[in-house]
Write a structure and sequence with these properties.
about 260 residues, mainly alpha, Rhopdopsin 7-helix transmembrane proteins, 10 helices, about 70% helix
């Protein structure tokens, strides 16, 4: 084991231990009180619902590239890419349903597709920067861990003692480890610049989420949460663009013959 792998494993283990030692984190009941609750065309919370449509569009776009231009990825990495874009497309439905009827029950179906995206993204990065077979082997365990984190939160909420700690690990650990992998192994894949865009859009979306009320109060046109959806959808769009740049290039020259 070289020092870079040891560093990544140490940080991962440190995050898990630190979060496990923290107090349980229940879901804030005020989370469901979004600034923009205006109905339109008979649809409650219209803009927060409809702003999820880009996730569906970019998920479909990713799938279309994968299956019309198979040279963009290798056979070993294709399952992770396909599941990633599937999760992105599902996010449109899960988040849309949640914003139609905001509650902890519908929030489960908002978060499950997102864990598909987070966990399959890790498998993609491992495949691209380390080993496609390793990424493929990790895919199913990672997906189960992601789904398990949401199931654990939902179960603890049903007991009146909600705990978001495992879900926090699933959501935020990739955003820490993935930039480190790109920095430490930057010459191993051409995805680096696009992943940086992805991270930038994700961070901007989280900032917009925290400014839900202030942004809505400024002009009452678009709330911070609606803007969050639009910015967050540009994160996977960055990887769609990355695959578009690979069209026509032999896949064994892209990420796998290392």
């Amino acid at each position: 084991m070289n020092w870079r792998v040891a560093l990544l494993l140490t940080i991962s283990l440190g995050i898990i231990i630190a979060v496990a030692m923290a107090d349980p984190v229940p879901q804030d009941p005020l989370y469901h009180q979004f600034a923009d609750q205006r109905p339109m065309a008979g649809v409650p919370n219209f803009l927060n619902v409809m702003s999820n449509l880009p996730f569906l569009l970019f998920g479909i776009a990713g799938w279309r590239i994968l299956f019309t231009h198979p040279e963009t990825v290798t056979a070993a990495t294709k399952p992770a890419w396909a599941i990633f874009f599937f999760g992105i497309a599902l996010t449109a439905f899960g988040s849309g349903w949640f914003h139609l009827e905001p509650s902890n029950n519908t929030l489960v179906w908002d978060r499950l597709p997102m864990t598909i995206g987070f966990m399959s993204l890790i498998a993609i990065i491992v495949s691209e920067y380390f080993s496609p077979p390793l990424g493929r082997k990790l895919l199913v365990p990672l997906l189960l861990a992601g789904a398990g984190s949401v199931a654990y939160w939902a179960y603890t909420e049903s007991l009146g003692a909600g705990d978001l700690r495992p879900y926090a690990i699933v959501q935020f650990t990739p955003m820490l480890l993935i930039p480190m992998i790109i920095i430490l192994y930057k010459t191993r894949s051409d995805l680096g610049r696009y992943v940086w865009w992805m991270i930038g859009f994700y961070v901007a979306a989280k900032v917009a989420e925290q400014l839900d009320d202030p942004l809505f109060a400024v002009g009452s046109a678009v709330s911070g949460h609606t803007l969050k959806h639009l910015l967050a959808s540009l994160a996977p769009a960055s990887l769609v663009f990355a695959l578009m740049q690979r069209r026509g290039r032999p896949s064994d020259n892209i990420a796998s013959s290392r």
